[in-house]
Amino acid sequence: MHVRSMSTFECTNLLSASRVACLACSKDGKPYVVPIYYAYADIHLYAFSMPGKKIEFMRANPHVSLVVEERGHGREWQSVVVDGRFEELPDRIGHKRERDHAWSLLSRHFDWWEPGALKPMTQPQSDHSEHVFFRILVDQLSGREAKEN
Ligand SMILES: Cc1cc2nc3c(=O)[nH]c(=O)nc-3n(C[C@H](O)[C@H](O)[C@H](O)COP(=O)(O)OP(=O)(O)OC[C@H]3O[C@@H](n4cnc5c(N)ncnc54)[C@H](O)[C@@H]3O)c2cc1C
Fold this sequence. Notes:
Oligomer: single chain
CATH class: Mainly Beta
CATH superfamily: Electron Transport, Fmn-binding Protein, Chain A
Bound molecules: flavin-adenine dinucleotide
C-alpha cells in the first residue's frame, strides 16, 4: 500500500460524489461527532436536521470538522477532511434563496429528510416548523488516498 495526498480538485470531486459525512463539533471543550447526509455545492456542504445536540453545539461554536471517506477495491480508500464554519439558513427573509438551494440539492435523494427528522421514539417530523437547514462553509480541506502497490 502507499498513501498520497489528493489535489483540491480530487477532494471536491469526492465531496460531490459522496453524501455521508461524520460531522465533528465542540462546545465548552467537549467534542461531539455524528454521521449526517449532505450535498456539496459551491464550497459549501448543505444539510438538514432537527434541533438537538449538534445544532446546539454548532450554534454555540460554528467551527466544525468533517470527514468523508470512500472505500475502493480491496484495502484501497480515499478520505477528505474539511475544516469549516456552520451557517444556519433560517426560515426568514434574507435567507430564502440559500434555503431553497439547500432544499433543491438535498431533495435529489428521495430519503434525504428522514435521518435528520427521526429521533428515538418519535414519528417523522419533516413538516415540523422547527427543522433546521444549515451549511458548512469549507475553510480548508485535505485529502489522502491509499492505493495497492
Ligand atoms: C447514514 C446516516 C445519515 C444521517 N443523516 C442525517 C442528516 O442528514 N441530518 C441529521 O440531522 N441527522 C442525520 N443522521 C442522524 C444523526 O447521526 C443523529 O443521530 C441525529 O441527527 C441526532 O443528532 P443530535 O445531535 O440532534 O442528537 P440528540 O437527539 O440531541 O441526541 C444526543 C445524544 O444522542 C446520542 N446520539 C445521537 N445521534 C446518534 C447516533 N447517530 N448514533 C449514536 N448515538 C447518537 C449521543 O449520545 C448524543 O449525545 C444520519 C445518520 C446516519 C447513520
